[in-house]
Amino acid sequence: MTTINDFQRVFFIGVAGTGMSALAQYLKGIGKEVSGSDRYFKPGEPNDTRTKLEAEGIGCFEQDGSGINENTDLVVVSAAVEETVTEVIKSRSLNIPIIKRSELLAMIAKSKKTIAVGGTSGKSTTSAMLFDILQFAGLEPSIISGAGLVSIIREGKIGNAKVGKGDWLVIEADESDGSIVQYFPEIGLLLNVDKDHKEIDVLMDVFTNFKQNSNRFVVNRSHPLAAQLSSDLNFDFCHHENCQAGYIARDFKQEGLAISFTINHVPFKMKLVGRHNMENALAAATIANILGVDLNTAAEALQQYEGIYRRHQVIGHKHGVWLIDDYAHNPAKCAASIEACQPIAPKVIAWFQPHGYGPTRFLRHDFVQEISRVLRPEDEIWMSEIFYAGGTATKDISANDLIQDIRALGKNAYFAEDRNELLTHLRPHLTENCVLLLMGARDPSLEQFAHKVWKEL
């Protein structure tokens, strides 16, 4: 299997995952026969992802091997699927080729003019903004994303993939599993480099590879590590005073839940919060302009941008409290998320559920430093216990260790071990005018948790 023309009938093991469901929908959209299974598909239990996949004509099965037979041409597995899974064993016995999700994405990327969006933060948002600009400009792009775009969710779909008639495909290039080095895009975009899953020197190696594989490479020069990988500053962008680049954002203002700024003196206004979103919009407008879309058209498109799922999603306003749900999960993202809420109200109460014992241990110092740096005297950080997805992990760290470290730095930090009791503990801290910000990733029940908090607020 070297190109997407080498197979017709494909089966996904773990099809409900965001990365997998996006590829399944994309293949269906280009005329392949697609089916898949997931451990979350249980008989008689409603499953929203399953319903939406079936509505697209994608067959859904329980993870028992019943969906795979000798007519299956290709089986796709996510990184989390082990060799011992029934379906992997069955595929091997039938000699069906098995490839990883990232290998399939690389194959798809080769079949189109691809823009690969890389960096440790902002990939999903920037991809969505770029897709919206290209779509608004009539280029009919395709997208494969790690998060649902509200504009596509409105069509009753999962929202993380769309097949357009045009030449361009926007994808997220993930550095966390190293798969980014498999893509050979027409345009590679590097947003930033922060310690996340890996140490900085490892990340710089990965991103250097990404640069070498890209026909044209565009970087964010406001970010010193990304700037080191610049290949032509005329195509780069930045938002710092006296930096040199072809595209420069200035005049940032945030009023409540809206931001405004200029790019090369063209005014932009968006219904979003945070300086990081100006940076994402700047990246998207830069790439669109390189493809021939003028900046005024980009500004018009982004004025209508509706955001992506669980990225600073405003759940609502009740009893003087703004409830906002966000996917922030590494130190830089958590700090940016808290900062983005500060212009909305004089007090921000942020809650964070770290995921994985290994990552939390690895990033402990960075979480403590970054979160403490942005908290104002009246702001608070709360954490509940680390989310554990199963597998072998040494549970020798608690979210409470991070809270104690932050408290030692003189900040308001609190631990509510069980998140279901969060509101009970936190209620006396709410004021007539504050933001309650919920942060976390990797835990599929976080969305329900946000709605539970809203109901009980």
TrEMBL record:
Residues 12-112 form the Mur ligase N-terminal catalytic domain. This is UDP-N-acetylmuramate--alanine ligase. GO terms for molecular function: ligase activity. Residues 117-287 form the Mur ligase central domain. It comes from Flavihumibacter stibioxidans. Residues 310-442 form the Mur ligase C-terminal domain. Pfam families: Mur_ligase, Mur_ligase_C, Mur_ligase_M. The keyword Nuclease does not apply. Transmembrane segments: none annotated.
